[in-house]
Amino acid sequence: xxxxxxxxxxxxxxxxxxxxxxxxxxxxxxxxxxxxxxxxxxxxxxxxxxxxxxxxxxxxxxxxxxxxxxxxxxxxxxxxxxxxxxxxxxxxxxxxxxxxxxxxxxxxxxxxxxxxxxxxxxxxxxxxxxxxxxxxxxxxxxxxxxxxxxxxxxxxxxxxxxxxxxxxxxxxxxxxxxxxxxxxxxxxxxxxxxxxxxxxxxxxxxxxxxxxxxxxxxxxxxx
Length: 223
Prior knowledge:
Layout: E1 7-10, E2 17-18, H1 20-33, H2 41-45, H3 52-59, H4 65-80, E3 88-89, H5 93-102, E4 106-110, H6 115-124, E5 133-135, H7 148-156, E6 164-168, H8 171-179, E7 184-187, E8 205-207, H9 212-220
Parallel strand pairs: 1-4, 1-6, 4-5, 6-7, 7-8
Antiparallel strand pairs: 2-3
């Protein structure tokens, strides 16, 4: 018999927070510094869940590796200076987090975003205290899709891995969750490409909006 769920672990960008406006803004400011035209929001949005390197590569597709590394460093400087001008919780996520608390379920963050960006972002938005644990991309020697960050998050939240589920918007999120022996829910409202078929990732559920998570939990029989 499956254990009662005690925690929901979340990816950050594209799952809990809509960070794309500020990340795209940072890229376009970088492009402007190089006298290049800004890119349309929708052209960059799908790169955000894959981190700064993918975002910068989208704007500078022909840059050599050494130049790309310098561009990424500058991009991160720009982004750090404007972390949450437009970044917000996805619509409905506030209600999701409040409901999980009322159900005595813990919430946690497991992201590949570096802690020097993750921590001030959560603090500036005033939501850090809502999470029992936060594991960033540089917290451990491994990052998703390795299961270690999810297992570490469960330990920090004082729950067993099989008492958790993981929610994310990228294939590596499903891979990491399954490697940690947790159900994986795919946030289809996140930063997927228009031509991307998330059903091939083998997720255990698919969310078209954050509030769908509550319906999935109710139907799971594990509350």
